[in-house]
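Work Package 3 (structural annotation) set out to generate three-dimensional models for the target panel prioritized at the project kickoff. During this period the team completed the workflow that converts sequence records into discrete structure tokens, so that structures can be stored uniformly alongside our sequence database. As a representative example, we reproduce one entry of 89 residues exactly as it appears in the project archive.
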Amino acid sequence: METTLSKWGNSKAVRVPVEACDELGLSLGDRAEVTVDAEHGVLVLKFERSKRAYARTRRMTMEEFAAGWDGGKVGAEWSGRDVGTEVVA
């Protein structure tokens, strides 16, 4: 990911790509500690861990979501056919 240093009032700003925010679970208003390593040209933003109960970090595939599921199929509890056994013509 790349971004550009821009002017913002009397300061300078860097826009953080939405993909990076999603991966870290960041939202507007989250605070960051800024450290500088001038010798190596490194600027580090360290965000506080969110106090929210849930924060999406990235999109998950259905296979990843269901990995480790050891329960039975759904549908039998209604005395019907298993859900998900539909035939697509």
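The beta strands are 5-8, 11-14, 32-37, 42-47.
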